[in-house]
Write a structure and sequence with these properties.
Elements lengths: L4 E8 L3 H13 L5 E4 L16 E2 L10 H19 L4 E2 L3 E4 L5 H15 L4 E4 H7 L8 E5 L3 E3 L1 H14 L3 E3 L4 E7 L4 E5 L2 E10 L5 H7 L6 E13 L9 E4 L11 E4 L5 E4 L3 E2 L14 H17 L4 H10 L3 H8 L11 E15 L10 E4 L3 E5 L5 H17 L3
Parallel strand pairs: 1-2, 1-12, 2-9, 5-14, 12-20
Antiparallel strand pairs: 3-8, 4-8, 5-7, 6-7, 10-11, 11-12, 13-16, 13-17, 13-18, 15-16, 19-20
The chain binds flavin-adenine dinucleotide (FAD).
Flavin-adenine dinucleotide (FAD) binds next to helix 1, strand 18 and helix 10.
């Protein structure tokens, strides 16, 4: 083991949240010594590099949530960031379409939330829908969100990292947090795969492992992550077959938006992501990153959710298992688009994994971001969608309220 590394601020995880927090610290204290450690050999290898790449407009979330508070501003800030740094952004908007009469009230609720949250949203009729995308299919009305766009999440993370490095932030790859070494009133010392690191303030932005790290510091007592895998299927026949992002009306009892069409910045059309309960945190494929202790703990929690059908978990699990069938997944698309060649859906693309937090006492799904901590450590839990969109103003909020003021 090498000698102890010392720093003022130590961030665990080089995803968009860790990078955003480092950026915010440096903006406020230009001479601060900030180190980010990352267990992988590069940044954005998990959620931040495997998302749908959508800059959400902010109409899904209730006004009292942090998600509502930061998505409108986050969308604006990241749009400006992409423009300023010549990063790709596709301002093609989004349609939320209904499939039947009962879903119309869902559209109205989204429009109401959007208006309260300060988004530009508009309920439009079928004629207006076909002017935006002749292939979109809806029942009577749809919600149009012109401010939704798609971006390249990895390009944004790389650009932020380059900016941080030029400002003196050190990013150490292949360096995994292993366990807490010691903690005093004024510092936290951690054991990593490259040795001990001591910091005045530890900031845990470890995504899928954030709950485990928080527990080492006495936080996340009532929470545990249940990972949900998101599979995407690519439509490669003709890039012009879809012109905008097309989403169904979501079930507002959980955080998933339903299988939708997104058009990435290079024009690729994807459907997904699914929301399949996974059995361990790195369960991207049937055997990747297998960890027996995680399987036991997550399976036990999922069994409870299944038996009680908490937040409709059992129904969700049955429905989601069907989506492993390409044929079934394709059949869902015919509900929201008029004409696509089923043979155009050729391959599954890289899956993502949602770090979804569940309350282990009440068995409720946690809908909003959770921040816990004290003077020596801060823990960002449940940074789920639209975490990428919210990242920059959310990072400022965390730094102002939890990093510098505690
Ligand atoms: C399928 C899917 C689709 C999504 N779509 C969208 C979207 O369209 N728009 C949107 O706004 N949001 C979307 N999101 C949400 C968004 O991607 C996340 O909110 C955001 O990426 C979270 O960032 P993060 O930095 O917290 O996590 P991550 O990107 O997962 O970063 C955490 C980092 O911590 C590292 N780490 C973990 N453990 C350790 C350890 N022990 N030691 C050192 N490092 C460690 C990991 O390797 C990882 O790099 C989506 C998410 C998923 C999964």
């Amino acid at each position: 083991m090498s000698t102890t590394i010392q720093t003022e601020y130590l961030i665990i995880g080089a995803g968009i949240i860790g990078l955003g927090i480092a950026r915010s610290i440096i903006a406020k204290i230009p001479n601060a010594k900030v180190i980010i450690i990352e267990k992988e050999d590069n940044l954005a290898k998990h959620s931040s590099g495997r998302s749908s790449g959508v800059l959400h407009a902010g109409f899904y979330y209730t006004a009292d949530s942090l998600k509502a508070k930061f998505s409108v501003d986050g969308n604006k800030t990241l749009t400006e960031y992409c423009e300023k740094n010549n990063l790709p952004i596709s301002k093609i908007g989004k349609l939320v379409v209904a499939t039947n009469e009962t879903e119309l009230s869902g559209l109205e609720e989204l429009e109401r939330r959007g208006r309260i949250n300060g988004c530009t949203v508009q309920l439009i009729d079928e004629k207006e829908v076909s002017e935006i995308d002749p292939n979109a299919k809806t029942f009577q009305k749809a919600l149009w969100s012109p401010k939704t766009s798609t971006i390249d999440p990895i390009a944004i993370c790389k650009s932020l990292a380059n900016e941080l490095i030029t400002k003196g932030v050190q990013i150490i790859y292949n360096c995994a947090y292993i366990e807490k070494a010691s903690e005093s009133k004024n510092s936290a010392s951690i054991k990593t795969s490259i040795g001990i690191i001591e910091a005045n303030k530890l900031i845990n932005t470890a995504g899928l492992y954030s709950d485990k790290i928080a527990k080492d510091y006495g936080w996340s007592q009532d929470y545990s992550i249940v990972p949900f895998k998101g599979l995407y299927l690519k439509y490669t026949k003709n890039k012009t077959d879809i012109k905008t992002n097309i989403y169904p009306v979501p079930n507002l009892n959980h955080t998933f938006l339903g299988v939708h069409f997104t058009k990435t910045v290079d024009g690729t059309i994807k459907i997904g992501p699914t929301a399949t309960p996974a059995f361990w945190r790195g369960n991207y494929t049937w055997n990747s990153n297998f960890k027996l202790n995680e399987l036991t703990q997550i399976l036990s929690l999922e069994s409870k959710l299944f038996l009680k059908n908490s937040f409709g978990f059992r129904d969700l699990a049955f429905e989601e298992m069907k989506k492993y069938s390409k044929k079934y997944l394709i059949s869902l698309t015919s509900k929201i688009v008029k004409n696509l060649d089923p043979n155009g859906f050729t391959e599954f693309s890289r899956p993502g994994m949602r770090a979804q937090l569940v309350n282990t006492r009440t068995l409720e799904m946690i809908m909003d971001f959770i921040i816990e901590g004290d003077k020596t450590s801060v823990h960002i839990l449940n940074a789920i969608s639209p975490g990428f969109t919210c990242s920059l103003p959310f990072a400022d909020y965390v730094v102002e309220n939890y990093v510098l003021n505690k």
